[in-house]
Amino acid sequence: MTDFSAVLPYALISLLGVFLSSVSQVMLKKAAMRKYSSVVQEYLKIFAYGIFFGTTFLGILAYKGMPVSLGPVLETTAYFYITVFGIVIFKEKFNSKKILALCMIVMGIVVYALG
User: Fold this and answer.
1) CA 100, CA 112: separation in Å to the nearest integer?
2) What is the residue range of 33's domain?
């Protein structure tokens, strides 16, 4: 059994990486929806790619101190971030299919965590 207090900082690093990855995906989607007047402006979205690249290092750091089996469980939080960003930023509709899908994800996480 793994000591929870030893794993917690690494789990938080993993969650931060997943959150930042979701933010960079939203930034890239917003950038793809715009028309740019110059090539220089278009490549300013490199910042979003930089965030995305940086999350790889957060993942590597997180896996140094937490069990590999915990990673996929924490990475599923991205579905919640993306859903919230979709509703708030892109004004997507939250319907019964999305609720059902999120419930299935939560059930999968619970089953995986208990197994």
Assistant:
1) 18
2) 4-114
